[in-house]
Write a structure and sequence with these properties.
Elements (H helix, E strand, L loop, with lengths): L1 E17 L5 E20 L4 E4 L9 H13 L5 E6 L10 H16 L6 H11 L3 H6 L3 E4 L4 E4 L7 E7 L5 H7 L10 H8 L15 H7 L1 H12 L4 E4 L6 E5 L2 H14 L2 E7 L2
Parallel strand pairs: 3-4
Antiparallel strand pairs: 1-2, 2-4, 2-5, 5-6, 7-9, 7-10, 8-9
Helix pairs in contact: 1-2, 1-3, 7-8
């Protein structure tokens, strides 16, 4: 079977505090976008995995998801997986996590849904904090380490341009640079629901706490954000811990014109437009 593994952007990202387990409590809104990896998975005589880019076996979340599935179900799931990576690595778009969720969902279908929803979520959480979000692939408010997912009735009436420069940002590095901003009187969820479609007001209230330290380390990311605004974006922000930046535009031609301008100034690994 074939399954798409979509990317996500973070609409706002607050780093609340560092926890005793060395993770961080966060507040963010995960929002799926058009850019997707493509996974084909079929039964085979032995485990096989192929990708259009080199992936380290130890960090390959597709193989880890397969291992977890086999351990929890007792099924010897001999499958062939072919992954076409379109989502850049180290881009803050959740590509690896989305791939892992796609493997779990595909194996569930192939082997008759042996795991209940709670068991599936448990495996997803162990694979990565944002993997549970990709099981549903719908806008969600995330807290805790990012694994506490609350469905959110939130839909953007804007074209989303997402671009990724020719640099990658390690998530551990980004967390080592960031300073937690602490608890606010109003949660990010309340802020976004209060703003609704008034996207022009996001600029002064919706922030990503990673931006300042990451821009200091990788100035090109901040330059791309500035170019987004210069090209007419109503709002622009870095996604996750970087390096991708997205902008909200009122029309597709506006977004396409901005993408052309960015390609003229910067080397990009990816550029994609998501319709409302």
């Amino acid at each position: 079977m074939k399954i798409l593994a979509p990317a996500k952007i973070n609409i706002g990202l607050r780093i609340i505090r560092k926890r005793s387990d060395n993770y961080h409590d966060i507040q963010t809104v995960f929002y799926p976008i058009h850019l997707s990896d493509e996974l084909e998975i079929v039964k085979a005589d032995r485990h096989e995995f192929y990708s259009n880019i080199k992936l380290d076996d130890d960090a390959n979340l597709c193989l880890r998801a397969l291992d977890f599935f086999c351990e929890r179900t007792g099924i010897n799931a001999e499958v062939k997986m072919v992954l076409k990576k379109n989502i850049p690595v180290g881009a803050g778009l959740g590509g690896g996590s989305s791939d892992a969720a796609a493997v779990l969902l595909a194996l569930q279908d192939i082997y008759g849904h042996p795991l209940c929803e709670i068991e599936l979520l448990n495996i997803a959480e162990q694979l990565g904090s944002d993997v549970p979000f990709f099981l549903k692939k719908a806008p969600a408010y995330a807290t805790g380490k990012g694994e506490m997912i609350e469905p959110l009735k939130y839909r953007l009436n804007a074209f989303i341009l997402t671009v990724t420069p020719d640099v990658g940002v390690s998530t551990p590095l980004a967390y080592s640079l960031v300073t937690p901003s602490g608890e606010k009187a109003e949660s990010l969820r309340e802020v976004l629901l209060g703003l609704g479609d008034e996207i022009h007001r996001y600029k002064d209230t919706v922030v990503n706490d990673f931006e300042k330290p990451v821009f200091g380390k990788f100035p090109v990311i901040g330059q791309i954000k500035s170019e987004m605004y210069a090209s007419g974006a109503d709002f622009a922000l870095m996604s996750g811990s970087g390096s991708s930046v997205y902008g909200f535009f009122r029309t597709r031609p506006d977004a396409e014109s901005a993408l052309e301008a960015l390609r003229g100034r910067f080397i990009l690994r990816a550029g994609d437009i998501t319709a409302p």
